[in-house]
## 1
Amino acid sequence: MHTPTNLKTSWPDAIFAHFRRVGIRQVGYVPDAGHSRLIELCRDDPDIADVVLTTEEEGVGLVAGAALGGQRAALLMQSSGVGNCINMFSLLRNCGFGCVVLVTMRGEFGEFNPWQVPMGAITEDVLRLAGFLTYRIEDADAVDDIVGAGCDMAFDGDLQVAILLGQRLIGRKQWTK
Amino acid sequence: MLDRRELVRDLLIDRGDLLVVCGLGSATYDVAAAGDHALNFYLWGAMGGAAMIGLGLALARPQKRVAVLTGDGDMLMGLGSLATIGVQQPKNLAIVVLDNAHYGETGMQPSHTFSGIDLVAAALACRFTQARAVSRLEEAAEVRALLHSGQGPLLVNARISHEDTPRVLPLRDGHAIKRRFIAAVDSA
């Protein structure tokens, strides 16, 4: 399991602080090592419904339903999960549902597993083609700023915002003990 | 077997502030045929997504009742969402599958339910509180009562005839459907 190594600030905590600030009430996710700390924070918060999904595209419906009921929702997924969502993303675009998606990247910097590369290499392009504004973070110091701005744009403007958390930020997946 | 229009009409009689999510295709037309309503969220795409939209809505509005009316094709495409709903156990969510065992929008090709794939058993396996099949219009009143007061998550699989029905086309502008729905929920 991944453990945050940045001592200055724990970036998942910085993301979570913005979830609290903008009033995220539902978080959909497929379990993910890179998001493990953020998932834990969401699960521990009684004001947030944490919804574990069988596939990421379910989360797109969840966001829409939450918005219809007056709640804000965020999605946490791995870059591979973006590919699972493409058609369902049309729901967000067609109706103008504000949404923040935090994407932990695989298949890039130092990736050991070549099977992750094809999807990881096209993740940002896919999101843009699907109508998302995309921002990429490689450095823990940028998390607070970019996630804050992304959340505001998503929910002030009913826009679809994806924030890609680079593999340099998350750390390479360790394959040996 | 049930006539889909008669069933949906009976399910939505005196609907009060029931929040309704309609799966794409015939389910949307059926709900529109029963009477346009601001608390209808019509889907025209996003196949496989109706049940999850219902879940997000049910979690956001625990004091309101949410009914998802959708077809067997949409439910089969979102089969995993039954498991996701089973984990969440929303008490205020019911799904009605209008099961004609065919893909009506694309030329009536048989769906998986035609080969006996059982959505009621799937819902029970996913820890739905109650799941049942209905095939007679006389059962509509009971199903309607479940939508308004049964403890969810619930699934009703309605075996409907696959006779073609005339299309009744409601609003198609997603932004307009959304805004109208949100305004109506706020004042309901």
## 2
Amino acid sequence: MTTIFGVPTQALFGQLLIGLINGSFYAMLSLGLSVIFGLLNIINFTHGAQYMMGAFVAYFLLNWAGLGYWWALLIAPVVVGITGVVLERTTLKRLYQLDHLYGLLLTFGFALIIQGLFRHEYGSSGLPYAMPAQLGGGRNLGFMFLPNYRAWVIVFSLAVCLATWYVIERTRLGAYLRAATENPSLVQAFGINVPRMITLTYGFGVGLAALAGVLAAPIYQVNPLMGADLIIVVFAVVVIGGLGSILGSIVTGFALGVVEGFTKVFYPEASNTVIFVIMVLVLLVRPAGLFGRAT
Amino acid sequence: MTTAADAPAAAVGIGAVTPVPAHQIVAFGVMVAALVAAPFFVYPVFLMKALCFALFACAFNLLIGYVGLLSFGHAAFLGAAGYGAAHSAKAWGFPPELAILFGTAVAAGLGVVIGALAIRSKGIYFANITLAFAQMAYFFSLQAKFTGGEDGIQSVPRGTFLSVLDLRQTLTLYFVVLAIFLGGFLLIHRAIHSPFGQVLKAIRENEPRAISLGYRAERYKLVAFVLSATFSGLAGATKALVFQLASLTDVHWTMSGEVVLMTLLGGLGTVFGPVVGAVIVVTLENYLAQLGAWVTVVQGAIFVICVLTFRRGVIGEVGHRFKKSL
């Protein structure tokens, strides 16, 4: 068996794959957080719960309406995104004049409520969600075995991330968005409905979280607490990438997933903390994050 | 975060320390009387739990109420001190007073390290960074040998306090815990209402101006952070002896959320708010405990209600009604 640094290549590539999968989720979640933070200036603590809701909507669609994975991929982000829009319209909107920390506390409260309700209803053991039949099986790449579904998750989330980046950085809509991030009142003076843009942005960010939840459902189980601990890691990812930086979220998301995967091979004890350690180191050198601008 | 109750504080000149107003002394007297009488009516262990959390919330309030920094990682200090006290009492045979001091010192040391790194950032960054440190502390506690992992450190001996007071007697333990709480409470109060506290408020209101007046803002904030960590540690170490247990619950990030909840509910930046908030939250948890996941839902609902309609908190509202700072 071939080895690299004394580690079998099989294990190395296996962890690389797991790292890329985790990285896909980090990237999609931190991208949503970044987009929301850019315009609303709040850290959306409900993000993990909304990721979980996405997985649950997929589960409901399958078991109540008989709609499979592909429909869920389409419907779940919209449904959860709408709940996000309602949340923003009814509550978050009232806090924009206040200290941003109140937004953090409010969304933290919502996360507790949502996770508590789901846990009360479905326990914390997790519900299975079948992989779509088209993506079952896998292929042997010679050096490792690649399950088709995992390849799909990586490719799809990368595509979603790049599409989001393109829309924000290269289209007229994205230009409005970036302008509103810089100076909302000036953009409003040009006749653009900024409050509506804020609402839709929040809905979009939440929808991204839900989409990640659907992608995660067949890999991890559908579990009320699936987002609770993940979101704290994602917060660290966002801080490392630089809050509000779109490209930064995507790159650091994937990169940190891989770093975490390799840590599992070479020094498993540190695999849970490596991202936080990196965060501390990055902040010592660049307080605004790797891709963030100093404020 | 500025609360209405503190707005006039900015008008007070730095260095000029106002005497403690009479109504605060009266309120303190009422609190002490109630706490002395309470164990004869209410289950003392429950009261001790409330007192430990009250001290924890007061320590947390020192940071958010007077420096305006929201830490989302205070569980690290509570938990680390708990492990420190439990380990030193059980494995090294420290008497309770030394175990508590050792636990508190562990939290203070951790506070210096985390504070030095976190204090450079503000607002949401600060919240995130403290949260990340607390997660590191959590995973350390999960994996280190001496913490006992998932089991925690169990059956910690309570021993005899200062070789005189036998802490195995619940009532004796209660009054020792009460003394620790009151001592911590008064020291925090003293710190806030000293020239040092005035500088902290000045930094909170307008940091560049405080710096231009020659105050080293970073240093003041760090001292406040370490003080807050130290008193959180005092609470955690005491709690470990009361329950004879140091476990992962105290290091988990949900605990960091809980202390935010207590302080927010009682009133950010108020003197008595954290105590009242802690008592309410601990009582609620006690009654809701058999309902399982509903505890989380109720906690979340309190957060939402507080933030949307009730930002002054219970004591803040009372103080506002009577135009007195409590």
